[in-house]
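Comment thread on ticket #2218

A.B. wrote:
> Attaching the input chain for the structure job we discussed in standup.
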Amino acid sequence: EKVYAGDVVLSADGKSVAYLSDCEMEMGWFGYYEMTKSNMYVSKNGKEGKQVAKDAVPLAVTDGGKHVFYIKDGEKLYMDEKKLDSGISSRVYFNRDYSEIVYNKDENTQYFRVKMKEPVKVKKGTFSGIYAPENMVVAAALTSNSKFATESFGVDSFNEKLWCIDYSEAYFVFDKGEE
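C.D. wrote:
> Ran it. Output below, let me know if you need it in another format.
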């Protein structure tokens, strides 16, 4: 199987991987190649990958390959087959095991974890980090089209942490994204 090396994401435990294959590219603006077609797969424990989406870009996969976050149709955020949001900004943040995501949309900070039904708006303003002793970016990546960047913080959860909004304001965020 021919795997496209530009968009491969590994789970925190290193046992699951989401990747692209069956890719078609064509020359775009300024001599850069643009992906026009692809299939996204998830492989668990080194076994053959299972196709989970078409024409998508993987952002993160949880331990055991149970959930995969990805971008489709430009700026639409999905978890598994469920559309979570559209029109999101180009930077997304995950906790240590990729079960929680924080992202910005329309100058608002949004929060979602895998057990929630839908994302919630936490605060007006854009998320710019957290203040915690374990606040360490443990992984950072750029998608192949350079449109989305992901960062994984070394925290088990974003809950009960002091969040920084707009690089100037700090808020303590409780369960379910409430300040």
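A.B. wrote:
> Thanks. Noting for the ticket: DSSP finds no helices and 17 strands in the chain.
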